[in-house]
Design a protein that fits this description.
Layout lengths: L2 E6 L8 E5 L2 E7 L2 H15 L2 H4 L12 E8 L2 E9 L6 E4 L6 H10 L1 E2 L4 H7 L4 H12 L2 H32 L14 H16 L5 H56 L4 E6 L5 E7 L2 E5 L6 H19 L5 E4 L8 H14 L2 E7 L7 E5 L4
Parallel strand pairs: 3-12, 7-11, 11-12
Antiparallel strand pairs: 1-2, 1-4, 3-13, 4-5, 5-6, 8-9, 9-10
Helix pairs in contact: 4-9, 6-7, 6-8, 7-8, 8-9
Length: about 375
């Protein structure tokens, strides 16, 4: 099924323009850089949440106060309008995005290999990509779910502990021998029991009285709280172990996907690319017959770009398998044709619509060429 995008007054596109995308390879040829960039902006307009999109006045054509993007895909029709507002440079956004806000933000990071992509630039410039990778791998491994279970367990544990502290304070205050109250986890049943026994014997001569029944009640509450804490401790240890295993398996699975893409591109002398325990990129390569750890900063610009795109593809396949687009903008012109063809063929295996934007050598209009896997 084809997808149809209609763009009007977005960036350098100043009149209604229809682009038909077919499943497989779509090479969009634009007459100039402004129009080519505008096609990317149009796709981003469809997915970015309003809170982000309204702060992108450059998406709207300079000479228009209203622009729009409409897409018909898989039986759905979505239209978003960008309009000037009276709040500084903010835009007014009309229409819902193609996907929910979180998915749209993340697709923008890992499905658009273009010069302004923050994630790709952070990888190339060695900035905050480790945190982003950690976040994505955690989501892939469903770590957030177990972190919430552990958090709930810890909250319940604290509640039971507060009950014990309250009883301990009461026993200490009732027994005048205690002039200060140690609020730490060294408090134990024996200590509190001794406090109550001393108190009871001092007050009533170790005979059952109304006070002794109060003490019995407090002791019963204490025993229940302590028993619950023991159960919650076991749950906490179980979730901690589960989280540790999920971190390891999530990272290992993601590393397998990285290597799958990397081996396909077949860059010489490289042995392995992976995320280490701290989510830094670790690269090993062959040099003079030896395997060495490669300093990322010493990679060529093309090699850094390759690592970045490999990570983006691995993330899309693992985390956004249903997102239908992957866009390669002019940033890929650093590749030789052989590796670019390998990359495009790989993307088409996993993404319905592979979009490559480039310049047109002839004509003044946007042209789209379609193709299947390139040999």
């Amino acid at each position: 099924m084809n997808a149809q995008i209609t763009i009007n007054n977005i960036g350098g596109i100043t009149e209604p323009t229809k682009i038909i995308l077919k499943k497989g390879l779509n090479i969009i040829k634009a007459p100039n850089a402004s129009v080519k960039t505008s096609i990317i902006k149009a796709l981003q307009t469809l997915i970015l949440p309003e809170r982000i999109l309204k702060h992108r006045p450059e998406f709207l054509n300079n000479y228009s106060n209203e622009g729009s993007v409409e897409i018909m895909i898989e039986g759905k029709s979505i239209k978003r309008k960008l309009m000037e507002s009276h709040i500084g440079s903010e835009l007014k956004i009309v229409g819902r995005p193609l996907y929910n806000a979180e998915l749209g933000m993340e697709a923008n990071l890992i499905s658009f290999a273009e010069p302004e992509n923050e994630f790709l630039n952070d990888i190339i410039e060695r900035k905050n990509w480790g945190e982003t990778l950690h976040k994505f791998v955690n989501k892939i491994a469903n770590i957030k779910y177990y972190e919430k279970l552990q958090e709930d367990t810890d909250t319940k544990y604290q509640n039971e502990w507060d009950k014990i502290v309250k009883i301990f304070n009461k026993s200490s205050q009732m027994y005048a021998e205690h002039t200060w109250i140690p609020l730490n986890r060294q408090i134990n049943l024996k200590e509190i029991t001794n406090n109550f026994i001393k108190l009871e014997c001092a007050v009533v001569g170790c005979k059952k009285t109304k006070t002794s029944y109060i003490i019995d009640s407090e002791m019963n509450t204490l025993k229940i709280a302590n028993a619950r804490m023991n159960v919650l401790k076991k749950e906490h240890i179980s979730y901690k172990k589960k989280l540790m295993n999920l971190h390891i398996s999530g990272r290992n699975n993601f590393n397998k996907k990285i290597m799958e893409v990397f081996k396909l591109l077949d860059f010489k002398n490289f042995e392995k690319i992976e995320l280490d325990d701290t989510y830094n990129i670790k690269i090993t390569r062959k040099f003079e017959g030896k395997t060495i750890i490669q300093n990322f900063n010493r990679l060529s610009s093309t090699e850094k770009l390759t690592v970045g795109i490999i990570l983006m593809l691995a993330l899309q396949e693992e985390y956004l398998p249903d997102f239908p687009f992957f866009v390669l903008d002019q940033i890929t012109t650093n590749y030789d044709s052989k590796n670019l063809i390998k990359l495009i063929n790989y993307i088409q295996k996993y993404v319905p619509y592979t979009i490559v934007t480039t310049f047109s050598s002839t004509g003044e209009k946007i042209q789209v060429e379609y193709g299947k896997k390139t040999k």
